[in-house]
Amino acid sequence: MAPSPILTRYSTAGAVPGPGGATPPDLAWHHGDPFGEQRAATTGVIIVDRSDRAVIELSGPERLTWLHTISSQHVSGLADRQSAENLSLDANGRVEEHFLLTDIDEVTWIDTEAQRGTALLDFLTKMVFWAKVTTGPRPDMSVITLVGPAAVSGPVADLLEIDADAPVYSAGDLPEVHHDDEPLGFWRRMPPIGEGRDLPVVDLVIPAHILDTWWSNLVDAGARMAGTWAYEAHRVAAHRPRLGVDTDDRTIPHEVDWIGGPAEGGAVHLDKGCYRGQETVARVHNLGKSPRRLALLHLDGSSEERPATGDPVTAGGRTVGRVGSVVDHFEFGPIALALVKRNVGADVDLVIGADHPVAARIDPDSLHADDQPQAGRAAVERLRRGPSTPADAE
Question: Who contacts 68 (Cβ-Cβ below 8 Å, separation ≥6)?
Fold first, then answer.
């Protein structure tokens, strides 16, 4: 994509473009005060340009029932003005696509990572077959994001006409900012982020030609301009993964906490019909454990070097994982998300990278307890033992 109009407009006023890689160079990385921008989200509200996200439109009377059959989420009965997270898996249950969808007025809007837009659209289009569905790219739509308590209460929320009690994944129409026949766009509440996952998040999906208008109106209402650095810092602190950065070509949904229905904030519903990759999901859920898990790492802040996405994570000279998102947090210093082997505990000394190794430790609070008995495994054990009580025999 070309540089965002927001980056172009504010480049002489302190907006700094991203360095590339996982940090898009076409968006503002920060607006002159990266740590101040992060801090502002904890008490007020920041506005972040995420207009690099690819937007796709699905129309037709069978769009939701059709999407339900080819993806991992239960969306056949998704209500109007509701959203969900969803995945496309390969035949072995590995994650190929992660996307958000919102259904409004008989149109399903999908947005995903910029580099995955074309591949996702190609997949959806090829899978239509005889279904009454039309797919199409919408490069004329942009995404911006608000983070902070004042996103859902106060002048900014009033401008967007958001109810403070609107639940996560609900959506609503945006008010008019121009009196014409163009689409108005919509707002969508997303799961909170931040250290305690207590910072409200509101996405706006709006026509690109009024992006600048909405940006100015929201800033005038009290939103502080922030770059992708601030959003990423709070996302990483919340332990929320990003496709293609915190995942690789071997990632399965259990490794990155994408299990659950829309009400649970997941992207894989465990009680729905057949879809590609379902066998792996069911087998891991009922009988085994994922080989890796996503962990939050605290990095040695004394080093000026920062690991790069994809660098190996080692313990005692042995590779035990790969690093994903890396960011400097205003309170924690340098932190990262990494996929590490399940048997690596929080007490293990880790090293990231080879050319410029950086010491790291796992945040113990980021490791979920997984010692609960699995239904399938328990059933197998009962069969092996044979009936020992009248209840077991029954």
Answer: 74, 75, 76, 272, 273
Q: Are 143 and 204 in contact (CB under 8 A)?
A: yes
Please report, for the chain, the start and end positions of each structural domain, with discontinuous segments joined by +.
1-289, 291-366
Residues 2-28 pLDDT 10s = 889 999 999 999 999 999 888 889 999
Taking CB atoms within 8 Å and a gap of at least 24, the contacts of 15-24 are 15/225, 15/227, 16/227, 18/227, 18/228, 21/308, 21/309, 22/242, 22/245, 22/309, 22/325, 23/228, 23/229, 23/232, 24/52, 24/114, 24/228
Mean pLDDT, the chain, whole residue set:
92
Write down the architecture of domain 291-366 according to CATH: Beta Barrel (2.40)
Identical topology for domains 1-289 and 291-366: no
Query: 1-289 in CATH: which number?
Result: 3.30.1360.120
Looking at residue 86, its pLDDT comes to: 98
β strands within 197-276, DSSP E: 199-207, 224-226
Q: Which residues of the chain have pLDDT under 50?
A: 376-380, 382-383
